[in-house]
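User: I'm putting together notes for a lab meeting next week and I want to include a structural view of one of the chains we've been expressing. I don't have a solved structure, so I'd like a prediction I can at least talk through. The sequence is below, exactly as it appears in our construct file.
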Amino acid sequence: MTNASTRTTSGSDQVSGATKGTINPEEAAHFGALAADWWDPKGSSAMLHRLNPVRLGYIRDVLNQHFDLDAANLRPLAGKRALDVGCGAGLVCEPLARMGAQVTGLDAAPENITAAKAHAEPQRLDIDYRNIGIEAFGESGFDLVTSLEVIEHVDDPDGFVTGLANALADDGLMVLSTPNRTSMSKLMLVDLAEMTGRIPKGTHHHEQFFTPEELEELLGAAGLKVIDTTGISYSPSHGFSLSDNLALNYLMTVVRG
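Assistant: Thanks for the context. Below is the predicted structure for the 257-residue chain, given as structure tokens.
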């Protein structure tokens, strides 16, 4: 398992106002360089656009179950606070805001925060975007904490998970997603995806992926408990879908232990 104690860090002590801690400067710069076309469904984030409906459908289902929400309610999160960590340009924040939540989005790349604000403003979506790491955030009591395809990019996974745990309300719900560290994920998400240009080169580093067992152990050390693990599969004909197969990517639903 690759973690903060064994991973070599580099870069400056500051990342655009975000204190160096969990943030990897090279990773932040990589994703910041993609900010300009983050919202282009055919651009460098095309795979995220294809993946996002599957992730959002899962989040809505687990929220309905956890908070006993009305599945037909278009604004089920009214009165609830949501935090998305590693929010990019807002692919998850904006739907959560439309569902009625008071949303905060954190990202290590200032370019992403700029793009997120620019996209939300004309839609009159009141989202609190901040260029800061979770370890320096300091706020708590969020009913929903999400961090999707992020933990594999941080320098200090233990500190990152601790920060997520500190932000979660006692009766809150956390949803994470990340690639599994398998031969399939290396082939599909690194080798083939980058070779064909479907994912920008340098996006994924296979050795930094987490197996579900490793991530569950990390969460447990922070006082959290995994209550569901669901795979995300991909096929050229059907795209992404939820699955019992965890080999490529997976989602986790987490509560306080």
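A couple of points you could mention at the meeting. The CA atoms of residues 115 and 169 lie 29 Å apart. The radius of gyration is 17 Å.

User: Perfect, that's what I needed.
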